[in-house]
Amino acid sequence: MNSPSERQDLPQDVDLLICPAWIIPIEPAGLTLADHSLAVTDGSIVALLPDVDARQRFRPRQVIDLPGQVLLPGLVNLHTHAAMNLMRGFADDLPLMRWLSERIWPAESRHADAEFVRAGTLLACAEMLRGGITTYNDMYFFPEAAAAATERIGMRAVLGMIAIEFPTRYAADADDYLTKGLAVRDRHSASPLLNFSLAPHAPYTVADKTFDKIATLAAQLEIPIHLHVHETRHEIDESVRLHGARPIERLRRLGILGPQLIAVHAVHLDPGEIELLAHEGCHVAHCPTSNMKLGSGIPPVAAMQARGLNFGLGTDGAASNNRLDLFHEMRHAALLAKGASRDAEALDAHAVLSSATLGGARALGLDARIGSLLPGKAADLCAVRLDEWLLQPCYDPASHLVYVAGREQVTHTWVEGALAMCNAAPTRI
Questions:
Q1: pLDDT digits over 323-345, tens only?
Q2: How far apart, in Å, are the Cα atoms of 317 and each of 79, 136, 138?
């Protein structure tokens, strides 16, 4: 029998050892590691350590060597409408309110049923996994169908329990939406990959009474509130006309502001509103491509960053973006922040990578589980090859991920240590 000291010297069994050229762990901030490996067991990260130490310390059941590639946490899509993948290119080149009233809402009233949501969500999940996204925050009808699609493909999601005042094929009124959403949440309460949020659509489609109920539910259930806000100047003007206050002030009065709030878009913020959101511990889902495509404007991201307001990146839906591609969002976010602020140092490469991973995880209340490569966290990962001739030379892998590479360079995506996408193909569908 081996003595205790001899047993301690034996290699530790692990499920997986991943050995890329570089690892960007996100925490600590600004760090890029060369010649390191990541060990995974039972879906969680065991250790991140130099290659030579990893080979001595661990006895992996599988080794994946990734020369010329960079490993980082799976990307977090902080705002999307997954099922709207079936509307990709359907309503292009229109401003938001015409896009909604003339094209999207009429089409949804005719076509958006449970099967539409299941099929559209499955397509969206496959697209997101192909681009290194392992978690998405959704807002749409029929969340039960979205849950089924997400679980089938093996992805992580926060599904919105949508609330809106007008009827659709899903529900009759705001109370009906919430009742149905809460029932779906109860049915999936044991799912390791599904979480839920309250998802009132926007201040201009949700009444004060509904917001009161949502504030109470969010406090009771300790879940996020996922809400479009300050997307256009028209929205703000109408709020002043109808409620005597800008939307964020109205939300403050209604008790919606706080660490549970994910303010989607937040394009038109004045300095006082940035200060208020930061003071209340709110989060912003920055969707730069959708904001540009709908002509909504450019959010003051550099000012948010300077004030310490946490933000993540979202694609919005494929009907207002056309791609569920966080590599596009990272590049656009970085360049727009620099251009709008006239500060080339605003939102540097490591900061934008953090917003696409840990920032989104923090907004969803999942940062203890995902968003960085700390031991004990879930092995939600993506690998990106940087050795193609089109990408040469590579002086800084973090810079390359933001300014050079694209989702087509993603080779592997893991969710809780399970390979969900390999060489451009989802593994489970």
A1: 999 999 999 999 999 999 999 99
A2: 8, 11, 9
Phi-psi region for residue 342, left (φ > 0), alpha (ψ -120 to 50) or beta?
A: left
Taking only the tens place, the pLDDT of each residue in 127-144 is 999 999 999 999 999 999
DSSP, residue by residue, 59-127: EEEEEEEEEEEEEEEPEEEEEE-GGGGGGTTSS-S--HHHIIIIIIHHHHHHH-SHHHHHHHHHHHHHH
b/e string for 249-279 if b means 16 or more Cβ within 10 A? bbbbebebbeebbbbbbbbbbeeebbebbbe
Q: Long-range contacts: 384-389, Cβ < 8 Å, 24+?
A: 384/69, 384/70, 384/72, 384/132, 384/409, 384/410, 384/411, 385/66, 385/68, 385/69, 385/409, 385/411, 386/21, 386/22, 386/68, 386/69, 386/70, 387/21, 387/67, 387/68, 387/69
